[in-house]
Amino acid sequence: MTRQECLDRLKADAYEVAPGQKVRTEQFRPEDAEGIARLYYAIYGDTFPIDYLYDPDRIREANRRQDLYQIVGRTESGDVVGVMAMFRAAPGKGILESGGLMILPEYRKGLLLYRLYDLTQKIARGLPWLNAEYTQTVTDQITPQKMNERFGARGLGLEIEAMGPRLAGDGRRVTLLDEFVVLRDVPHDVYLPERYAELLRNQYAAHGLTRRFLPGQEPAGGTRWERMEMPIANLAKLQVTKIGADLDAVLRQVAQMDTAHALHLQLPLADPALPWAVEFARAHGFWLGGLLPLWNDTDVLLLQKLAGRPDFDAPQLLTPEVQELMRLVRADYEALCGADTVL
Q: What pLDDT does residue 343 have?
């Protein structure tokens, strides 16, 4: 079914769940797919940006592969009242995103939230090929950050105003905090840009990640890149896997294509041309986002730019480390804001 066909079907048949039932927390079963799709629609309406989560058949198919691991809160009658998941979103083979946490309002009291988190982390640690897990945590509330900290996640990147306003929110876009748990480190060489070297060295040291820091080189050959869109979030991403001498032309091409509010640039820290690329990207208006460890199975530096001036005071941030990261992100934006740029 198309996205619209799925939405029309869900809209025509409201999800009604009797309150007060006992709830078990378990891994996904095929019969849970219908309840998961209905839960997404009950919480998000038609605004969730990932199409397949409205389609029970595609949910079942994704769970059959190593692309999706869903954990559900299931009532005695089989209704799905809560869900959390690990899924493939980053390009690396050894990394999964953890997220998609939703609980029906009638079932948000009690221990269901903790039990969904706990079972998700137990499953993650049982996957022998999984090197890293991350979550893109909303910052318009503080509770998710507290839960992630309890299970060992640490914030290393900030995606400013990357998510659209909530249906019942104040109309402001939402900043996401990229939080990581590195289960099995993969030491490798990285090439630090001078302007962000202190931050990156501190992040590596604070989280016990072993890297060899090498001097950069000028690029050669062509840039390998891919552009992805999330129209509902008004977000576009430019993923660079090899930095070439034509990066300037690539960034000009992308600028002509993009009308999104937020544009992310992912640059490989394992590429010797990374320091050169950062300075070129800044000339095109990109500023600091943060470190994405093992994103491509090696590390990635996130840069970003927005269509308008962001509200840096809106995010609620839990830890001093993340508050300091926000200070550096904001300072980098302010330093660039008054400078001449190519765009």
A: 42
Nearest to 273 by CA among 201, 339, 192: 192
Q: CA–CA separation, 262 vs 25, rounded Å?
A: 36
Strand positions, DSSP E, 29-128: 68-75, 80-87, 95-103
Angle at 19 between CA 15 and CA 25, to 5 degrees: 85
Taking only the tens place, the pLDDT of each residue in 120-137 is: 999 999 999 999 999 999
Burial letters for 204-239: b for 16+ Cβ neighbours within 10 Å, e otherwise?
Answer: beebebebeeeebeebeeebebeeeebebbbbbbbb
Angle in degrees, 0-180, between the axes of helices 247-257 and 274-283, rounded to the nearest 10:
40
Q: What is the CATH number of domain 3-130?
A: 3.40.630.30
DSSP symbol at 223: P
pLDDT tens track for 259-286: 789 999 999 999 999 999 999 999 999 9
For 224-266, write each residue's pLDDT tens digit. 999 998 888 899 999 999 999 999 999 999 888 867 899 999 9
Contact call for residues 289 and 136 (beta carbons, < 8 A): no
Q: What is the residue-wise DSSP string for 294-330? A: TTTSS-EEEEEEESS---TTS----SHHHHHHHHHHH
How far is the C-alpha of 328 from the C-alpha of 310, rounded, in Å?
A: 14
Two tokens, residue 220: 């050669």
Whole-model pTM: value is 0.90
- 258: CB partners within 8 A, 6+ apart: 236
Would you identify the CATH topology of the domain 188-337? Aminopeptidase (3.40.630)
Burial degree of 297 (CB within 10 A; 0-12, 13-18, 19+)? middle
pLDDT of 8 > 50? The answer is yes
**Ranges for all domains in the chain classified under CATH 3.40.630.30:** 3-130
